[in-house]
C-alpha cells in the first residue's frame, strides 16, 4: 500500500527537476508549485507513516487474539 505513495513522491521529485529548467523560470505559477512541492511531499510522508502505524497496530491486535 505504501508503494503507490513512493511512486507519487518519485514522480513529484522528477517533475520538480523538470520544472526547474530555464524555459519555465518566468512563470509565477511554476514558482508557486515548486515552492509547495516539499510541503506536499512532507504531507505524503505523514500519510505513509500513519498508514504504516495503523497496519502495525492491526497486525499486533491479530497476534494478541
TrEMBL record:
<protein>
    <recommendedName>
        <fullName>Asparaginyl-tRNA synthetase</fullName>
    </recommendedName>
</protein>
<keyword id="KW-1133">Transmembrane helix</keyword>
<keyword id="KW-0812">Transmembrane</keyword>
<feature type="transmembrane region" description="Helical">
    <location>
        <begin position="32"/>
        <end position="53"/>
    </location>
</feature>
<keyword id="KW-0472">Membrane</keyword>
